[in-house]
Amino acid sequence: MSLPRTEPNPFDLVRPFVWLAAFAFFVGFATYMLAGAGSVASAYSRTHAAAPISAQQIDWDSRRAI
After folding, report:
1. Dist CA 4 CA 1 (whole Å)
2. What's the DSSP call for residue 65?
3. pTM above 0.70, yes or no
4. DSSP string over 22-57
5. I want to staple 51 with a disulfide (CB 3.0 to 4.6 A). Which of 20, 55, 56, 58 is the partner?
6. What radius of gyration, in Å, describes the C-alpha atoms of the chain?
């Protein structure tokens, strides 16, 4: 009794790389979040955008904010 021959699946060659890419993304993203890089945006509060015109103007072209 023999098993019927099946055609090789081309995705079988790519599957380990897909898992590796997904794992690398997860590790990189988790490291990014644990390092606190996600909180960088909190350093530049958006509340000044709602400030009245008489408030101190912000120099958006300033290189100090970079």
Report:
1. 10
2. G
3. no
4. HHHHHHHHHHHHHTTGGGGGGGS-SGGGGS-TTSPP
5. 55
6. 26
